[in-house]
Amino acid sequence: MTSSDGVGPDIGGRALSVIVAGGGTAGHIEPAMAVADALRRLDPNIRITALGTQRGLETTLVPERGYPLELIPPVPLPRKPTADLLRLPGRVRTAIARSRAVIDAAEADVIVGFGGYVALPAYLAAGRGLRGRRSVPVVVHEANVKAGIANKVGARRAARVLAAVANSGVRASGRADAEIVGIPVRESIATMDRAGLRAQAREHFGLPADGPVLLVFGGSQGARTLNEAVSAAAPQLLAAGISVLHAHGPKNTLQIAEQSAPDDKAKYVAVPYVSRMDLAYAAADAAVCRSGAMTVAEVSAVGLPAFYVPLPHGNGEQELNARPIVAQGGGRIVADAELTAKYVLDEVIPLLTDPVRLSQMSAAAAGAGHRDAADAVARIVVEVAGR
């Protein structure tokens, strides 16, 4: 029997059932939801079940996107030899058993995982279990250059391994056949016409219709370095005719009130949080931002030139995320300690006032991005399921 949309034969007369496992942070959840949306575009009858934990952002983000969410116990991996390490085996077994129950109840045909606490139990539960339970094929997607433990483990037994960039850390699992597909982003981002949305976007934020706009954001919580450097340069930015849309984070405040240039041709708009990032991207001509994997994917997909400011701590992952875009000429990497008001004056303002350079960097950023990543992953998931 073949499904009405031509995706492939139904199994036992039922629609394809897919489990997406990616929770904890937006960097895991957003790609999972983008792929879920792409699967629904392929076939509205495909059944999607999201796997998550009570501790992650998925408890809010997944229901908002209209998908059922099944919760499993979180299994954080202790970084030091503490009592938690002794309890780890029992927690893993509990999480695997719960994941297997969800797999069986959903009659899952395939699991696509994006790493994190949720993915590891799902990968382990997908294998053939006790009492002759069937195994379920797995597709692993790694967004970062340095893969986490979950995806390294999952890649060893996955049917297909997908990566955002070349030389991804999933190769450390022994899988040299990782396919480069980019990071799945929301359809509103993947299909964005920045020029066409420009007027609507600027009106939405109360920005001038004409003149360059700088977008500043440091993730959902903001970033103090970005906030201090750009806000300190506010007078010079406005004097140069550059408007600013600055998302400073809900827990932060700026030592600046909304300001305008004397002739009202430029305005500094500071907000705690931006819920319509698609409109923020459309309103802007360049960005100053961190370089988390999801941020880099979205900013490059829409062709927005950016000054990427990697987190100064951690394993250096954020700088590695931005390097492919910078190598193509679509952005610059700025060390956290080097982003000052003087840097904004010396580097950011000259770029924003040079339409030719902005256009060139925009084209380079768009060329380095992967707008079709979600659809590519969706097609692979369907292929792995045998459709």
UniProtKB/TrEMBL annotation:
Binding site for UDP-N-acetyl-alpha-D-glucosamine: T25, A26, G27, N144, R186, S220, Q318
Keyword Cell cycle carried by entry: yes
Keywords: Cell cycle, Cell division, Cell membrane, Cell shape, Cell wall biogenesis/degradation, Glycosyltransferase, Membrane, Peptidoglycan synthesis, Transferase
Bilayer topology: Peripheral membrane protein
Subcellular location field: Cell membrane
InterPro entries, alphabetized: GlcNAc_MurG, Glyco_trans_28_C, GlycoTrans_28_N
Glycosyltransferase family 28 N-terminal domain segment(s): 18-162
EC number: 2.4.1.227
Catalytic reaction(s) noted: di-trans,octa-cis-undecaprenyl diphospho-N-acetyl-alpha-D-muramoyl-L-alanyl-D-glutamyl-meso-2,6-diaminopimeloyl-D-alanyl-D-alanine + UDP-N-acetyl-alpha-D-glucosamine = di-trans,octa-cis-undecaprenyl diphospho-[N-acetyl-alpha-D-glucosaminyl-(1->4)]-N-acetyl-alpha-D-muramoyl-L-alanyl-D-glutamyl-meso-2,6-diaminopimeloyl-D-alanyl-D-alanine + UDP + H(+)
Record-level Gene Ontology MF annotations: glycosyltransferase activity
Pathway membership: Cell wall biogenesis; peptidoglycan biosynthesis
Domain Glycosyl transferase family 28 C-terminal residues, every copy: 213-375
Primary localization: membrane
A family per Pfam: Glyco_tran_28_C
Similarity section: Belongs to the glycosyltransferase 28 family. MurG subfamily.
Role of this protein: Cell wall formation. Catalyzes the transfer of a GlcNAc subunit on undecaprenyl-pyrophosphoryl-MurNAc-pentapeptide (lipid intermediate I) to form undecaprenyl-pyrophosphoryl-MurNAc-(pentapeptide)GlcNAc (lipid intermediate II).
Protein known as: UDP-N-acetylglucosamine--N-acetylmuramyl-(pentapeptide) pyrophosphoryl-undecaprenol N-acetylglucosamine transferase
